[in-house]
Amino acid sequence: MKNVFGTVFFLLLLFVPALPIYSQDKYQVDLSEIEKEVQQVASKPYHLGGFFEFQPTLLGIDQDSAFSRLKFYRKRPGSPFDQYNFRLRLEGSYTKDIFSAFFRSDTYVRNEFEGWQEGTKLFEGYVSLKPSPSFSLDAGKKTMKWGKGYAWSPVAFVDQPKNPEDPEEALEGFTVLNANYIRSFSGPLKTLGLTAAAIPVYEHVNAKFGELNHTNFASKLYLLLYDTDIDFMVFTGSSRTTRYGFDFSKNLTPTLEIHGEWALINNQKMMTINSQGMGTMHQSDAISYLLGLRYLTEKETTYILEYYRNGTGFSREQFKDFVTFVDNSYKQFLNTGNDSGLVRGSRLADGGYGKPNPMRDYLYFRASQKEPFDILYFTPALTSIINLHDGSLVVIPELTYSPMTNLELRFRTPVLMGRKGTEYGEKQNDYRVEFRLRYYFGLESILRSIF
Amino acid sequence: MKIALFALSVILFFATPALSLDGGAILKQVDKNLQPESFESYRKLINIEPNGAKREFLLYTLKKGNDKIVSLFLSPASEKGRATLRLGDNMWLYIPNVGKPVRITSLQSVVGGVFNNADIMRLDYNVEYDVQNIADEKSEYVLDLKAKTGTVAYDKLKMWVDKKTVVPTKIECYAATGLLIKTLYFKERKPFDEGVLRPSVIETDSPLYKGYQSLLVYAGVKRRTVPNEDFTLEFLPRVETLR
Fold it and tell me: Is residue A412 within 8 Å of residue A384, measured between CB atoms?
């Protein structure tokens, strides 16, 4: 443990930037050098690069919470325990005339008390044809990223759900055939875009999307109308129920942006259990929506505020029943060694109760200050997600600093707060201490020597 | 009363030569001499810290007409693929990792340092500003510019224009409160598109960032016109394919 804290302390020192030392030397521009560099990149049709990441994390386990019991009932780690995460993200592209190709892969290795784990995923991999300025066609694995919400996106019908604690992270896409049509106009309607996508769901393609052996269809109409981004979207098919959506985004003033999303999900099925474990299947239409603001002050503090109504979420009583069931199952396991209740609880957690935000009403708040105290590339931030039904919350203080080109450091300590039976009170951890080091690289020089 | 009228006549008499200059025409000529109406360019943004440490960013930029401009970061690796689009008063930032464009404001800075989005994604000055006053000073005109709308990043500009070349040598940028936000210096004229001499270096400093300095170096400006559809939100993730 001392080693862990020692490592974290050492890494924290990297955050202390050099104090400004005033230099009298005037920087001289070498135009010929810059022109040489431009010539090198100007004619290059390919790109290969990515980042390497190291993230040691200290997890303070809440030993009495439902989700720590489900995860660790057989082999319980000490608390806090340390975890070491390594990640390699690679991405590349190639463009020739009307053809282009893109891929993004993700490889991780993790070491924690249970030993080593690793995995590799192709996040995105697709080819594109652009026969005219207005029309393009994509085929392959791709993220669509629909929606204007920052932490949540209820209209992202063909995307993996975002992690609201880290919403800017890349996600794995789905395999799609996607056609885009764009037109520009002068007048109040400046842009019109139409996207149509086919999403096949079979045993080896998009198997986790929904019911197998169907091809689904999704479409989006985008308008830039009266300086407002507006999208209308629809999804239909047999793998998931039909759903309709709408979103918008607009700058009310040069420093204030407003955005919103609205989604109607037809015949949404939801499985709940009572405190004895008796399951009930509910089916009804559900409406989810989101309203958000982004505000930039004169001193370059950015505030983001979002309210999210999750129409497919559990009520407070439904969530409490799940917690009671897990607690009873845990007692049964301790008394008899019978873990059938906990196995069932784990399956339910994977299905819905264990989602990042499984309940109905949430508030997201983030304040970040760009480069305070004249420290370039340094951004402190404070984020909080509040469950408005049960009052539980997570608070995430965060420091991000880039001490040199291509190196990014992030230190943050999410602290989860909530009583017994509340969402954040029943999560696996009480707190986490995370340090993330990311080094970005480009491999063009290697490619140049090959081609 | 007579004395006051006499004094006013004298003031008007001396002020007349300056007012007779067509500030709008000078500003339009300044825009023409700074950059073509539609072009592509490669630019290097250099941030220099008080201790001499510097960081460089290479951008590819396309501008069309009065209201369309898009910029793409080519290096360093950490910024590669970031793209910014401006359509009139609308501005968006696309970050490849995030995967979708988000609305931003012109006062934000994409990469840190003294330059902000308004400087990097600048439209022609005559599109955003009216000439309020013009003074004739030896070898320069001094133009006082006022933003046409409240959506423009700087409320007022004070622009020193070289009479011979009709190119600005210095611009002071002020907030509505009168606060000096930054000063831009235009330097090193060199031949770009079809041999036209344009400033190749824009230097800036700011009382808000004491000791810090940022430079924008133009390494290539070529006249190029691309379809309007290349300046759309839907096309932003594909800007790289235009190079």
Answer: no
Percentage above 70 pLDDT, chain A: 92
Residue B27 has pLDDT above 90, yes or no: yes
Compute the average pLDDT of residues A349-366.
93
Tell me if chain A has a CB within 8 Å of the CB of B228.
Answer: yes
ipTM greater than cut 0.90: no
CA separation for the pair A200, A128 (Å, rounded): 18
Taking a contact as any Cβ pair under 8 Å apart, which residues of chain B between 146 and 205 contact chain A? 150-153, 175, 188, 190, 200-201
This prediction's pTM: 0.89
Q: Do residue A227 and residue B88 have CB atoms under 8 angstroms apart?
A: yes
- The answer for residues whose C-beta is within 8 angstroms of residue B83's C-beta and 6 or more apart is B70, B71, B72, B73, B93, B94, B236, B237, B239
Name the DSSP class of A349. I
Is residue A324 classed as helix, strand or coil in its secondary structure?
A: helix
Question: Residues of A265-304 as b/e, b for ≥16 C-beta within 10 angstroms?
Answer: beebebebbeeebeeeeeeeebebbbebebbbeeebebeb
Distance CA A450, CA B86 (A): 38
Length of chain B (residues): 243
pLDDT digits (tens, 9 = 90+) for A25-55: 566 777 788 888 877 777 688 889 999 999 9
Single-letter amino acid code for the residue at A151: A
Q: Which residue of B has its CA nearest to A50?
A: B77
Residues 56-115 of B with CB under 8 A from A: 56, 58, 74-78, 80, 87-90, 95-100, 102-103, 105-109, 112-113
Q: In this structure, are residues A270 and A279 in contact, taking their beta carbons and an 8 Å threshold?
A: no
Distance between A203 CA and the closest CA of chain B, angstroms: 27
Summarize pLDDT for A57-90 with one digit per residue, the tens: 999 999 999 999 999 998 888 878 899 999 999 9
